[in-house]
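ok posting inputs for the histidyl-adenosine monophosphate job
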Amino acid sequence: MAIQLIRGFKDVLPPEAAVWQRIESTARRLFENFGFAEIRIPVMERTELFARSIGEATDIVEKEMYTFADRKGGRLTLRPEATASVVRAYIQHRLYATEPVRKFYTIGPMFRRERPQKGRYRQFYQINVEVFGIASALIDAQLILLLVTLLERLSVKDVHAHVNTLGCPACRPQFRKALAGYLSPRTAGLCSDCRRRSVKNPLRVLDCKVPACREAMTGAPALLDYLCADCRQHFEVFKSALAELGISYRIDPRLVRGLDYYTRTTFEIQTGALGAQSAVAGGGRYDGLVEALGGPAVPATGFAIGLDRLAELAAGVQGDIGAGPDVFIAVLGAEHRQLAFEWVCALGLAGVRAEMEYGTRSLKSQMKRADRLGAANVLMVGENELQKGAAVLRNMQTREQTEIPISELVARVKTCIGGNADRP
Ligand code: HAM
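and the output
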């Protein structure tokens, strides 16, 4: 039997891949306009990096990582997210030393061994954005602006920004204690995951989707009531900046996120259009992570968009690569194939998308193929044309035919196809 791809992994085929390209290029343009520079990081890191940053008691670290022993004995993990690696690179290359504020974006695959379903894969892609060195909540609001703008530019509708604050090491422990106290007489009614979490990571019980757990949490203490003055102030600045930017949002006190490094602001962009996997993007502030991983005390904030999910939402977006050729060269007689080939290459190098017939087919079937490919024009090369020193270019839409002198073929074809001539 032919070998199939791994469960939870997927191929992105054309023309869908062109939609992905369009999303990526729209994101790159937007982020670069806001001063973000691309950073590329490896897909594999030492396991310890993820355990220490995402947190030992998270679902990701406990049960979703692809981890294996290296031949030399070290433990390596396929990255389940990018933030930890960006922080590692930031510290390792002392990127803080030259400039106090650094803004990065990175695009690539992540790996989590979750139960696959629509919108949830074991290899998925993220567009990540990370900012280092800005403690102000204004930048958190700017991140939401970037997310909302990107979705708007991709014509994605029905999206909502959910925001919350998780406090900081000064105020969260009191809340955690109150929550654990609230949970301890109720553990019997929780799902098995939450029974475990209620001891190790009680905050995660807040966002469990199991109805019994939701029910049990109705009277739970709210973190908003436990915030210290600085966290409260941070959240106020964040909310008023969002209002100033005209961004509507919902405060969602249960939005605790699945990674332990967050402090203060957290947010998700959710949609009803993706079934159970409602989060298109998520992020927040992680002011303690750089220091926890051995760097200086630098505040940081960021988000990641799920590219697979975004591509499903942006199905209406047209990718521009993958459209039909500008010119299909129909070869009348095998002896002219070499010449057609030279033209295809010369046209391609000049930025004209050209395709040709490499086999021996009738003119009729070549015309059908040109049609199927969506070719805008067909250039016919046969004995008659060559004798006249001119080939015939037919516009497939208007049926108009133009004689093109062979001596200046590339330049004349470029003129005839007009707008596409400057592509390279
Ligand atoms: P996250 O919420 O775990 O955050 O993932 C961000 C986004 O990645 C999700 O909203 C979702 O769209 C997508 N995603 C996650 N898991 C899957 C999956 N199994 N299949 C398909 N899509 C998925 C983070 O990863 C943080 N590192 C975000 C961040 C950056 N926070 C600060 N900076």
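notes: Residues 81-83, 112, 114, 120-121, 124, 126, 128, 130, 258-259, 279-284, 302-304, 306, 308-309 surround histidyl-adenosine monophosphate (CB under 6 Å). The CA atoms of residues 91 and 295 lie 5 Å apart.
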